[in-house]
Amino acid sequence: MIRVLFFGMLATKTGTREAELELKKQGATVSDVLDEVRRRFDGFPDGPLLFAVNEEQADLSSPVKDGDEVAIMPPFSGG
Amino acid sequence: MSDEVRIQEEDFSIEEEVRRLRASSKKIGAVVTFLGTARDFSEGKTVEAIEFEQYAGMALKAMKQLRQATLERFDVVDVRIVHRVSTMKPGEQIVLIAVASEHRKEAFEACSWCIDTLKETVPLWKKEITPEGESWVVPHP
Q: B25-58, pLDDT tens digit by residue?
């Protein structure tokens, strides 16, 4: 199981802060997680999006395995 | 416990942060601070309050990495970074970056780079609360 976290406007749009999903594919990446999220949440924004795997910045090609925490994030707006 | 980098709900004292920064070394000859504060007007709308959301685990880690990167990239003695995440009214303090160095040039450059890089690398999101409703802020380059 992969734990997916949504922040900011993405949490507002999906109506949730987190979701769990299963990736059957071997060698899955953040891109596969995003595809699954888009299937599950209609109208999920096209971007720009940022990603993290287990609290480290990642990109669409970063590997994802069972038990990972994947964050899908809008551009940061701190400061 | 080290507290040079903090994310907190409560307000902070610039004087106290600068005092602690200056206490870190007698080599310090310059201190530059950046203070970000909440505006009451944004993109043509009145702003009643702002609120921050953070990716709790990652935000503090990213801010600590930012302090380390600033220390490595510039010839500075010490850096402190404090960011608030509660609901803030116009005029309230949001973020403080304080940089100490032997000479002023390095402190100015490091402080400017540090706030620019914070905006790009620390997972924090600002929401503006206006009389018409709430909206997430789209960052400016």
A: 999 999 999 999 999 998 888 999 999 999 998 9
* pLDDT number for residue B10: 97
Q: Does the distance separating the beta carbons of B61 and A78 come in below 8 Å?
A: no
Question: What's the CATH fold of domain B5-136?
Answer: Aldehyde Oxidoreductase; domain 3 (3.90.1170)
Q: Where do the domains of chain A lie?
A: 2-73
Query: CA-CA distance, B67 to B65, in Å (whole number)?
Result: 5
Interface of A with B (CB under 8 A): 5, 7-9, 11-12, 50, 52, 55-57, 71, 73-79
The closest alpha carbon to B99, from B2, B3, B6, B4, belongs to B4
Alpha-carbon distance of A9 to A23, in angstroms, equals: 25
Mutant choice from A3, A49, A54, A55 vs B, greatest count of B C-beta within 10 A: A55
**How far is residue A11's CA from residue A14's CA, in Å, rounded to a whole number?**
5
| Whole-prediction pTM | 0.93
Establish if B118 touches chain A: CB-CB under 8 angstroms. yes
CA B124 to chain centre: 11
The CATH code belonging to domain A2-73 is 3.10.20.30
* Residue boundaries of the structural domains of chain B: 5-136
